[in-house]
Amino acid sequence: MIIFFTIIRIAFRALGRNKLRSSLTMLGIIIGVGAVIAMVSIGQGAQATIAQQIASSGANMLYIWPGSYNSFGSRGGAGTMSTLTLEDAQAILRECSAVRLVSPMVSTRTSIIAGNQNWQSSVDGVNTSYPAIKLWEVESGSFFTEQEEATAQRVCLLGKTVVDNLFPGTDPVGQEVRLRNSPWRVIGTLKPKGQSSMGSDQDDVIIAPYTTVQKKMLGITHIHRIMISAVSQAASQTAEQQVTDLLRARHNIGGNDENDFQVRNLTDMAELANSSNRVMTLLLGSIAFVSLIVGGIGVMNIMLVSVTERTREIGIRMAVGATGGDIQFQFLTEAVVLAVFGGLLGITSGVGTAAVISDFLGWPTLVSTAAIGTAFSFAGMIGIGAGWYPARKASRLDPIEALRYE
Questions:
Q1: Which residues have C-beta within 8 Å of that of residue 55, sequence separation ≥ 6?
Q2: Beta strands in 151-213 (DSSP E)
Q3: 150 to each of 90, 127, 133, 210, how far by Cα in Å?
Q4: 147 to each of 14, 26, 123, 331, how far by Cα in Å?
Q5: Can you tell me the distance from the alpha carbon of 310 to that of 390, in angstroms, rounded to the nearest whole number?
Q6: Residue 255 class from Cβ within 10 Å (0-12 exposed, 13-18 middle, 19+ buried)?
Q7: Most CB within 10 Å of its CB: which of 189, 216, 327, 329?
Q8: Could you tell me if 54 and 269 are in contact, meaning their C-beta atoms sit under 8 angstroms apart?
């Protein structure tokens, strides 16, 4: 152990003889490690943000939309048919074992008036399972009850964007608003959710019983879509298959006939987004690793120069009893010291760069211990790899020739 610390001290002394050259050599490692950490943090930050946005959309969610009409060769978009009913939603909850919760949905867009303020917003008619499916908590007041849903009461909850525009600085719970010239009672407000994974404002919404929206706003008996929560993320594929089979049977769709509905699995969307971000993170990290390799080449170059400059010193060491292994270990230690100290400074640089990117550019970043550990480990391995050949060259010098070197 004493010998090891002695070799470390000698390495510092040797590197300290030319501080500028040693500093410039470490700079390559510093930039490489810092770039790896910063680039990976950008990729992981984007991945975490998208995952959070998708998770905020709901728990293991699937959406069922009606199909599109096809008339005389003209096809409408998804949702242009009226093929979904309340009985479909009830049958899914009753017969599909992989489904935990179901909510029928009807939607429209209208103006909401409160006093002398007005705002245009979406109205989503849902049932009492909606908060558990969407993982959306009530901030103040309460959600509507099954009794209010069954009797189609004119009650609603407001998203934060609606509250900010209609009731700035006041609590809307218990107050009256008007939707299509009808009075509605505000019974609660929803906690803010921010943007969805598609970039839309989730808080610009009014939530009401689907029965009320059906009967007293739209005058329809069908539903626009069905929202489903699977029992687990792993069961979402099973739930999708069970729902598809059930609705095909209920809608009398046989053989190779096309479905008159569409099932969209948000878990698949989340996996696709995560896969894309993993590729992006890997690409950014790989580009940054190139600069780390360039830094390693710089270490090797300087160590080769050092061997040439210290040839006479090597000869003297060998003359007084140092073995080739001792000489090799000495030069290898100097290379590792350069790489390790460059790696430590590179970690500081990378974490600082990630913070600057987040603060000034507004990009989400996530500095992980895995990225730091990987970058630092590669810096150490590059130090060993870059120092091995110069150290081996030094250990094989002929002592007599080395002593004669000028």
A1: 135, 270
A2: 155-158, 176-179, 182-190, 205-209
A3: 14, 9, 20, 9
A4: 84, 72, 20, 82
A5: 12
A6: exposed
A7: 327
A8: yes
Rounded Cα distance, 165 and 168, in Å:
6
Q: Give the SS3 label for residue 264.
A: strand
Given the structure tokens 């949905």, which residue do they identify?
105
- Cα 357 to Cα 23, 149, 279: the distances in Å are 26, 48, 21
387 touches 330 (CB < 8 A): no
Residuewise pLDDT in 10s, the chain (406 residues): 555 556 666 666 666 667 777 777 778 788 888 888 888 888 777 777 766 666 666 658 888 998 765 544 444 444 456 789 999 999 999 999 999 999 999 999 999 999 888 999 999 999 999 999 988 899 999 999 999 999 999 999 999 999 999 998 888 999 999 998 899 999 999 999 877 656 678 899 999 999 999 999 999 989 999 999 988 878 888 998 999 999 999 988 887 888 888 888 876 666 666 666 667 677 767 776 777 777 777 777 777 777 666 667 667 777 777 676 777 777 777 777 777 888 888 888 888 888 888 888 777 787 778 778 877 787 778 777 777 767 676 666 666 665 555 5
- Which helix or strand (DSSP H or E) is residue 403 part of? helix 399-404
Phi, psi of 76 (to 5 degrees): -90, 175
Q: What one-letter code names the amino acid at 117?
A: Q
The verdict on pTM exceeding 0.85 is no
Say whether 36 sits in a helix, a strand or coil: helix
Q: Which residues fall within 8 angstroms of residue 115, CB to CB, at 6 or more apart? A: none
Helix runs in 130-264, H state only: 130-134, 146-150, 160-166, 210-212, 236-250
The rounded distance, in Å, linking the Cα atoms of 126 and 117 is 26
By CB atoms closer than 10 A (0-12, 13-18, 19+), residue 400 is: exposed
Q: Where exactly are the structural domains of the chain? A: 2-53+272-404, 82-259
Q: What angle do CA 333, 335, 337 make, to 5 degrees?
A: 65
What backbone torsions phi and psi does residue 395 show, to the nearest 5 degrees? Answer: -70, -20
